[in-house]
Amino acid sequence: MSNNTLRVRLAQLRQRSLKAISLYNKMIRDSSSADSQFSTLQMKEWHQINEELLNRLEECIADANLKRAIQGAFTLRDDFHSQWRSAQSEIHRLHSQVEAALQSEDYVRCGVLSGQLVALRAREQASQAAYNEIQSVLSRSKQIPQPAATVASLANLESSNDQNKFDAEKLAEDAYNVIPLRRRQS
Asked: Which of 45, 69, 99, 133 could form a disulfide with 63 if both were Cys (CB 3.0 to 4.6 A apart)?
Protein backbone atom coordinates (compact mmCIF):
# COMPACT_ATOMS: atom_id res chain seq x y z
CA MET A 1 0.00 0.00 0.00
CA SER A 2 1.44 3.32 -0.92
CA ASN A 3 1.44 6.32 1.35
CA ASN A 4 -0.94 8.21 -0.95
CA THR A 5 -3.40 5.35 -1.29
CA LEU A 6 -4.09 5.13 2.42
CA ARG A 7 -4.24 8.89 2.75
CA VAL A 8 -6.54 9.19 -0.27
CA ARG A 9 -8.91 6.56 1.09
CA LEU A 10 -8.93 8.14 4.53
CA ALA A 11 -9.54 11.55 2.92
CA GLN A 12 -12.48 10.12 0.97
CA LEU A 13 -13.90 8.71 4.18
CA ARG A 14 -13.36 12.11 5.78
CA GLN A 15 -15.35 13.76 2.99
CA ARG A 16 -18.23 11.30 3.47
CA SER A 17 -18.16 12.01 7.19
CA LEU A 18 -18.31 15.77 6.52
CA LYS A 19 -21.35 15.27 4.29
CA ALA A 20 -23.04 13.19 6.98
CA ILE A 21 -22.34 15.82 9.63
CA SER A 22 -23.86 18.58 7.49
CA LEU A 23 -26.89 16.38 6.80
CA TYR A 24 -27.38 15.67 10.52
CA ASN A 25 -27.01 19.38 11.34
CA LYS A 26 -29.73 20.20 8.82
CA MET A 27 -32.02 17.48 10.13
CA ILE A 28 -31.53 18.57 13.75
CA ARG A 29 -32.36 22.19 12.82
CA ASP A 30 -35.44 21.18 10.85
CA SER A 31 -36.92 18.91 13.52
CA SER A 32 -38.72 21.13 15.99
CA SER A 33 -41.92 19.29 16.87
CA ALA A 34 -42.42 17.37 20.09
CA ASP A 35 -42.98 14.16 18.10
CA SER A 36 -39.42 14.29 16.85
CA GLN A 37 -37.82 14.25 20.30
CA PHE A 38 -36.44 10.75 19.78
CA SER A 39 -35.44 11.49 16.18
CA THR A 40 -33.49 14.52 17.35
CA LEU A 41 -31.83 12.44 20.03
CA GLN A 42 -30.87 9.89 17.39
CA MET A 43 -29.51 12.54 15.03
CA LYS A 44 -27.42 14.08 17.80
CA GLU A 45 -25.79 10.73 18.57
CA TRP A 46 -25.03 10.11 14.89
CA HIS A 47 -23.68 13.64 14.61
CA GLN A 48 -21.43 13.16 17.64
CA ILE A 49 -19.99 9.86 16.36
CA ASN A 50 -19.34 11.37 12.92
CA GLU A 51 -17.59 14.36 14.47
CA GLU A 52 -15.38 12.01 16.46
CA LEU A 53 -14.66 10.02 13.30
CA LEU A 54 -13.86 13.22 11.40
CA ASN A 55 -11.45 14.52 14.05
CA ARG A 56 -9.65 11.21 14.38
CA LEU A 57 -9.41 10.79 10.60
CA GLU A 58 -7.87 14.25 10.31
CA GLU A 59 -5.24 13.21 12.87
CA CYS A 60 -4.41 10.08 10.84
CA ILE A 61 -4.24 11.99 7.56
CA ALA A 62 -2.08 14.75 9.04
CA ASP A 63 0.49 12.32 10.46
CA ALA A 64 3.60 12.46 8.25
CA ASN A 65 4.83 9.04 9.36
CA LEU A 66 3.08 6.30 7.36
CA LYS A 67 3.45 3.66 10.07
CA ARG A 68 1.91 5.93 12.68
CA ALA A 69 -0.91 6.81 10.26
CA ILE A 70 -1.62 3.12 9.66
CA GLN A 71 -1.43 2.40 13.38
CA GLY A 72 -3.76 5.33 14.03
CA ALA A 73 -6.27 3.96 11.51
CA PHE A 74 -6.18 0.53 13.17
CA THR A 75 -6.56 2.11 16.60
CA LEU A 76 -9.48 4.15 15.32
CA ARG A 77 -11.13 1.02 13.94
CA ASP A 78 -10.61 -0.84 17.21
CA ASP A 79 -11.97 2.08 19.25
CA PHE A 80 -15.16 2.18 17.21
CA HIS A 81 -15.47 -1.58 17.49
CA SER A 82 -15.24 -1.40 21.27
CA GLN A 83 -17.77 1.48 21.32
CA TRP A 84 -20.11 -0.59 19.17
CA ARG A 85 -19.83 -3.66 21.42
CA SER A 86 -20.14 -1.71 24.67
CA ALA A 87 -23.26 0.02 23.33
CA GLN A 88 -24.69 -3.40 22.50
CA SER A 89 -24.09 -4.70 26.01
CA GLU A 90 -25.55 -1.53 27.52
CA ILE A 91 -28.64 -1.92 25.31
CA HIS A 92 -29.15 -5.45 26.62
CA ARG A 93 -28.79 -4.24 30.20
CA LEU A 94 -31.28 -1.39 29.73
CA HIS A 95 -33.66 -3.67 27.86
CA SER A 96 -33.92 -5.93 30.89
CA GLN A 97 -34.52 -2.86 33.07
CA VAL A 98 -37.36 -1.78 30.75
CA GLU A 99 -38.91 -5.23 31.03
CA ALA A 100 -38.66 -5.07 34.83
CA ALA A 101 -40.23 -1.60 34.84
CA LEU A 102 -43.07 -2.88 32.65
CA GLN A 103 -43.65 -5.78 35.01
CA SER A 104 -43.92 -3.37 37.93
CA GLU A 105 -46.05 -0.99 35.79
CA ASP A 106 -43.61 1.90 36.28
CA TYR A 107 -44.37 3.65 32.98
CA VAL A 108 -42.49 6.83 33.80
CA ARG A 109 -39.32 4.78 34.26
CA CYS A 110 -40.09 3.00 30.97
CA GLY A 111 -40.28 6.35 29.19
CA VAL A 112 -36.97 7.52 30.62
CA LEU A 113 -35.29 4.22 29.76
CA SER A 114 -36.77 4.34 26.26
CA GLY A 115 -35.04 7.65 25.62
CA GLN A 116 -31.77 6.17 26.81
CA LEU A 117 -32.31 3.13 24.59
CA VAL A 118 -32.91 5.34 21.54
CA ALA A 119 -29.64 7.17 22.18
CA LEU A 120 -27.73 3.94 22.78
CA ARG A 121 -29.17 2.30 19.68
CA ALA A 122 -28.15 5.33 17.60
CA ARG A 123 -24.67 5.21 19.14
CA GLU A 124 -24.45 1.50 18.35
CA GLN A 125 -25.53 2.02 14.74
CA ALA A 126 -23.18 4.95 14.18
CA SER A 127 -20.23 3.17 15.80
CA GLN A 128 -20.88 0.06 13.74
CA ALA A 129 -21.09 2.13 10.56
CA ALA A 130 -17.85 3.94 11.40
CA TYR A 131 -16.15 0.64 12.17
CA ASN A 132 -17.34 -0.87 8.88
CA GLU A 133 -16.20 2.17 6.89
CA ILE A 134 -12.73 2.14 8.44
CA GLN A 135 -12.51 -1.63 8.02
CA SER A 136 -13.37 -1.33 4.33
CA VAL A 137 -10.61 1.27 3.87
CA LEU A 138 -8.12 -0.95 5.65
CA SER A 139 -9.22 -4.17 3.96
CA ARG A 140 -8.43 -2.70 0.54
CA SER A 141 -4.83 -2.38 1.63
CA LYS A 142 -2.39 -5.25 1.56
CA GLN A 143 -0.84 -4.53 4.94
CA ILE A 144 -3.60 -5.74 7.22
CA PRO A 145 -1.94 -7.81 9.91
CA GLN A 146 -3.72 -11.04 10.70
CA PRO A 147 -4.35 -11.70 14.37
CA ALA A 148 -2.23 -14.55 15.72
CA ALA A 149 -5.29 -16.62 16.59
CA THR A 150 -6.56 -16.39 13.01
CA VAL A 151 -3.21 -17.46 11.58
CA ALA A 152 -3.02 -20.40 14.00
CA SER A 153 -6.58 -21.49 13.25
CA LEU A 154 -5.87 -21.29 9.50
CA ALA A 155 -2.79 -23.47 9.96
CA ASN A 156 -4.86 -26.02 11.90
CA LEU A 157 -7.56 -25.92 9.24
CA GLU A 158 -5.04 -26.50 6.45
CA SER A 159 -3.46 -29.44 8.29
CA SER A 160 -6.89 -30.99 8.94
CA ASN A 161 -7.81 -30.47 5.27
CA ASP A 162 -4.60 -32.26 4.26
CA GLN A 163 -5.48 -35.13 6.61
CA ASN A 164 -9.03 -35.32 5.22
CA LYS A 165 -7.65 -35.35 1.67
CA PHE A 166 -5.33 -38.20 2.58
CA ASP A 167 -8.23 -40.13 4.19
CA ALA A 168 -10.40 -39.60 1.11
CA GLU A 169 -7.65 -40.92 -1.18
CA LYS A 170 -7.20 -43.98 1.04
CA LEU A 171 -10.95 -44.65 1.04
CA ALA A 172 -11.01 -44.35 -2.75
CA GLU A 173 -8.22 -46.95 -3.02
CA ASP A 174 -10.04 -49.26 -0.62
CA ALA A 175 -13.29 -48.86 -2.54
CA TYR A 176 -11.55 -49.95 -5.73
CA ASN A 177 -10.68 -53.31 -4.14
CA VAL A 178 -14.23 -54.03 -2.93
CA ILE A 179 -16.28 -56.60 -4.82
CA PRO A 180 -19.83 -55.35 -5.25
CA LEU A 181 -22.62 -57.50 -3.82
CA ARG A 182 -25.19 -58.94 -6.11
CA ARG A 183 -28.46 -57.13 -5.80
CA ARG A 184 -31.69 -58.97 -5.25
CA GLN A 185 -34.06 -58.96 -8.09
CA SER A 186 -37.65 -58.77 -7.05
From this structure: 69
